Amino acid sequence: xxxxxxxxxxxxxxxxxxxxxxxxxxxxxxxxxxxxxxxxxxxxxxxxxxxxxxxxxxxxxxxxxxxxxxxxxxxxxxxxxxxxxxxxxxxxxxxxxxxxxxxxxxxxxxxxxxxxxxxxxxxxxxxxxxxxxxxxxxxxxxxxxxxxxxxxxxxxxxxxxxxxxxxxxxxxxxxxxxxxxxxxxxxxxxxxxxxxxxxxxxxxxxxxxxxxxxxxxxxxxxxxxxxxxxxxxxxxxxxxxxxxxxxxxxxxxxxxxxxxxxxxxxxxxxxxxxxxxxxxxxxxxxxxxxxxxxxxxxxxxxxxxxxxxxxxxxxxxxxxxxxxxxxxxxxxxxxxxxxxxxxxxxxxxxxxxxxxxxxxxxxxxxxxxxxxxxxxxxxxxxxxxxxxxxxxxxxxxxxxxxxxxxxxxxxxxxx
Length: 415
Ligand SMILES: NC(=O)c1ccc[n+]([C@@H]2O[C@H](COP(=O)([O-])OP(=O)(O)OC[C@H]3O[C@@H](n4cnc5c(N)ncnc54)[C@H](OP(=O)(O)O)[C@@H]3O)[C@@H](O)[C@H]2O)c1
Description:
The protein is an alpha/beta fold. The protein has helices at 14-26, 57-60, 75-87, 97-113, 131-136, 152-161, 167-176, 185-188, 191-205, 224-232, 294-308, 317-321, 375-380; strands at 5-10, 31-37, 52-53, 67-70, 91-94, 118-119, 143-149, 215-216, 236-246, 249-259, 272-279, 283-290, 325-326, 330-338, 349-357, 362-369, 384-388, 395-398, 400-402, 405-407, 412-414.
């Protein structure tokens, strides 16, 4: 029997208005929007003004509303709405990856305490059904990696970048076409993909990290020569969010990678997203779809609403049982390039495999201690481009401190 859901909707922008339309069109029984709360009183709306309220209390204090759907673009306000809704005994559906990534442990504890469901399928890769799959289908013991192209804006920029336009030119085009925000920092510096990766790691491995634990290096510093380099080698550059289990540790990062033709990522172009899940017996599986946009994202919200009608909730069983720990220190094979050859010395290599230097472009490929890379290093040196090289041939070796030294060659791992 489907439970009756009376919905209080926060936000009527891209996703909220999409949800309003597809909920009406879907014929989902026993679920209807009672109240909509937005922010701006003067904004023109696609439906009559009398549908809108501007005070969050109208939803939060309404005992008839048993589901709050939070689709606003302000993570701090969303945190207040979501926590208050849960404390009022209401189920919550949200798409706000930034808010979820920053408060996941607290939100899980809270929804357990108040015995409600808190679902957020739309927060990771829009229409791709990945969270519920990880939660229900994949057993922690057999799962070995989850990787994805989780940000459509950067994927769009990198796809167009293959046509040898400069980064700034492409970004301006992407903003004009609505694929990039006016302030594109969260997307192009890899924060958005990192929030999603953090949520993926929680559901894949049961390990809850904080955003600051996951390194994010974006695509802001990419140069035409880097794209040229990729083309000459038959590779493409993609911003990859990656998590992998090595022994009893989990590692994760967001960074550009050179990918080969046989990679899941090679033909994921423009604003599309994809996630690949590798497990011991099922091998690699790839989900590809629209990671953003009004209807695709709203379709994931609708799926959560539908699941709630059958009392579905994430159980976080892997979190309760996992022995895995998140590890920030490991070695990997990277590519760095710069228009100023001296800048390559900013990163200490354990081992150098290849170098190239000309008057206005230089690069180095080799193994580095991952903990020596930082988001700040990449932001402070706009001429320094950092990428993993190449996909499918990473050399991950966990770094462990023993007597002050980093070693542990036994954990050599390649894929
Ligand atoms: N857009 C996508 O493709 C996409 C994909 C995946 C996830 N998401 C996530 O979905 C959420 C919504 O994104 P969006 O693209 O729909 O945003 P949006 O188009 O910018 O719309 C945001 C909505 O939130 C309302 N709002 C902002 N602050 C509010 C507050 N304090 N109280 C009530 N309403 C408030 C705005 O009100 P006004 O209308 O009055 O301005 C607007 O209706 C975000 O968390 C985003 O990260 C979006």
